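quick one, 171 residues, struct below
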Amino acid sequence: MKLVRQGSLLCILVAWVVLAARAPASSPATVLTADEALVLRIVNGERSERGVRALVLDPVLTKVAREHSADMADRGYFSHLAPAPGPRTPLDRYVCALEIAPEKIPLIGENIGRAGQPVMAVIHKRMMASAEHRANILDGEYTRMGVGIYALPDGRVWLTEMFGADLPETR
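---
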């Protein structure tokens, strides 16, 4: 089942995805850039202020978020749906990154943003002003997050926030 909601400034996609397993526990540690780490801290601050548990950094969601931000910048589009070739939806990108056959159903969400300069607090403020983006950020069903920022030499930035829920057997 897919639920797609759109805001006037940014878009969200929330989808139920069929997956076999989450990222292996032996995955290497993900090192965030300073701006990516700031986004994770800001999001978790919003959640904490409202009594919602903090999101844990997920290496697979971060990889998918980084690749989507870079793809949007490099190919000149701004959408949850990537043009062909390659995986088109957040769901497709996540399943491909895990390299698994779909069998379980966790919740996957995606926020995207862009700006003329790398000011993460401004981008976040815009997301919180959008009911749809705010819903993803504050959704208590999500337990994991990936952040990917891609900047062009002229200063323009693309931000992708990926949200995930634990698989039923890990809850």
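Strands lie at 2-6, 11-16, 56-57, 107-115, 144-151, 157-164.
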